[in-house]
């Protein structure tokens, strides 16, 4: 496999992640109707906490303890 083919494959594999990342950034940066400007930073903080402190999120939202795979297989 040559260098160009490897870069093409890597590029195709990474595009979905780029699109998802852009979607997240757009969703976080959009202003909602009944929210003031100071809550924009809080949205970023909540998103970061959800990504990095999953155990604390499970304590706040007990439904996160449920196993979705078990729900699908029932």
3D structure, described in words:
The chain is mainly alpha-helical and 74 residues long. The chain has 2 domains: 1-30; 36-74, no CATH class. Helix content is 73%, strand content 0%. The chain has 4 helices and no strands. The N and C termini lie far apart (45 Å). 0% of the residues are buried. The mean pLDDT is 81.
Describe, in short, the structure shown:
With 74 residues, the protein is an all-alpha fold. Helices cover 73% and strands 0% of the residues.
Main attributes of the structure:
74 residues; mainly alpha; 4 helices; 73% helix; flat
Q: Would you count the extended β strands for me?
A: 0
Q: Which whole number gives the mean pLDDT?
A: 81
* Percentage of β-strand residues: under 5%
**Total DSSP helices:** 4
The low-confidence parts are: none
Query: In which range does the helix fraction lie?
Result: over 70%
The oligomerization state is: single chain
Write the element-wise H/E pattern from the N-terminal end onward: HHHH
**Class based on secondary structure composition and strand pairing:** mainly alpha
Q: How many domain modules?
A: 2
Q: Secondary-structure blueprint of this entry?
A:
Blueprint: H1 3-29, H2 39-52, H3 54-60, H4 68-73
